[in-house]
Amino acid sequence: EVQLQASGGGLVQAGGSLALSCLASGFTFDDYVIGWFRQAPGKERQGVACISTSEHSAYYFGSAKGRFTISSDNAKNAVFLQMNALKPEDAAVYYCAADRSNCDAQVMNHWGEGTLVTVSS
């Protein structure tokens, strides 16, 4: 059974940092695309960043570029999202998801439970 467990959310002031973690199990971790996605109240789920666990190549969606860093530790079956310079508009429930090849909120094959990020202004 595929499981993705996100953690690390919390309350942070604007300009602050948070580090999210996603622990994965139930699939061949080093042959997947693992991504972070987020959904704010009343908005569609959107991509934040993805990483290929085989190549360790990363892709960032516009809002994350320059502020967020995605990384993976294949030995721990974990993917991390370091978020710096947080803005109130970054507040959302953050989800990690896995797929063999896609980095797209509409088609990711496996999803974990989200972790809430709140950014105070």
List keywords for this structure.
0% helix
Extended strand count: 11
Report the principal-axis shape. Answer: globular
Strand content: over 45%
Order of helices and strands: EEEEEEEEEEE
Detailed description of the structure:
Strands 2, 4, 5, 6, 9, 10 and 11 form a seven-stranded mixed β-sheet that branches. A four-stranded antiparallel β-sheet has the order 1-3-8-7, with no helix packed on it. A hairpin with a 4-residue loop joins strand 7 (68-73) and strand 8 (78-83). The mean pLDDT is 96. It has 121 residues and is an all-beta fold. The protein has strands at 3-7, 10-13, 18-25, 33-39, 46-52, 58-60, 68-73, 78-83, 92-99, 110-111, 115-120. The N and C termini lie far apart (40 Å). The chain has no helices and eleven strands. It is globular, with a radius of gyration of 13 Å.
How does the SSE layout of this entry go?
Elements: E1 3-7, E2 10-13, E3 18-25, E4 33-39, E5 46-52, E6 58-60, E7 68-73, E8 78-83, E9 92-99, E10 110-111, E11 115-120
Parallel strand pairs: 2-11
Antiparallel strand pairs: 1-3, 3-8, 4-5, 4-9, 5-6, 7-8, 9-10, 9-11
